[in-house]
Amino acid sequence: MDEKKLAKKDIIKSYLNWFFFAESNYNYERLQATGFAHAMVPIIEKLYFTKEERSDALKRHLAFFNTEPMCGSIIHGITIAMEEEKANGEPITSEGINSIKSGLMGPLAGIGDTITQGIITPILLALCISLTTQKNIGGPIIYIISQYIIMFTISYLLWMNGYKYGKLAVEEILQGGMINKVIEGASILGTLVMGGLTGTFVSLSTTVKFKIGDSSFALQTDLFDKILPGLLSLTITLMVLKLLKKDIAPLKIMGILILVGVIGGVIGVF
Amino acid sequence: MKISLLQAGLIALFYYISWSPFLTYVSFFTWNRPLVAGFVTGIILGKPLEGAIIGATINLIYLGFISAGGAQIGDPSFAGYVGTAIALASNMNVKSAMAIAVPLGTIATILWITKMTVNTFFVHMADKKAEEGDTKAISFINIVPCQVFLFLVSFIPTILVVYYGPSAADGLFRIMGPKVLHVFEVIGGILPALGIAMNLKLVGNKFTMSFFILGFIFAVQFGINMITIAILGTILAVIIVQMKHPDESVS
Question: By CA distance, what is B37's nearest residue in A?
Answer without folding.
Answer: A140
